[in-house]
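Cast an eye over this sequence plus tokens and explain the fold to me:
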Amino acid sequence: MLLEINPLNPEPRKIRRAVQALEAGEVIAYPTDTVYGLGCDLFSKKATERLYQIKGIAKSQRLSFICCDLQQISQYAVMHDRVYRVLKAFLPGPYTFVLEATREVPKAVQSNRKTVGIKLPDHAVPLALVQALGRPIISTTAARHGETPLPDPREIDEEFHGLGLVLDGGPGDLVPTSVIDLTGPSPALLRAAAGDVTAFEAK
């Protein structure tokens, strides 16, 4: 089901409708500052399994999640001074940062190394969703594995059967987030995509 939403000032009743879907264990699609995301409540095991099915990916593929601010990130990731400084400089923005997970993070989204991918997008819709839900939402690109992300909400609705809701905030981008690992002694650029990554490139 498509629901048009204002990407700059999302209507509260539409955010509530999406949050109801998340609370009911549904998987939804939503715009971000890069590509459209597919997501669900971070703490719903059933919804997380459903997300793997809808996207058609193996459970060995790790899922990242969206927080609404740095304070919320500190609940789910170990925030050393060095990490905090990087996050403060680059977020909100089109980046996924790989960080050390705290005990709050469900096992389903942790890697074997106990790391997690966390996003804080510069987009009102996902931030409003997380704030209204009161906890993070899982975020994976609205694309089949190895394929280009789908920018059109209608295509996303048709392609991914079983979505509870598609929030239509207009056309999405084709370039996903850049991925930077902050768990080592110095930042490691894992994927150069959206955003300026010169600060993370090996000198």
The mean pLDDT is 95. The radius of gyration is 16 Å. The longest strand covers residues 95-100.
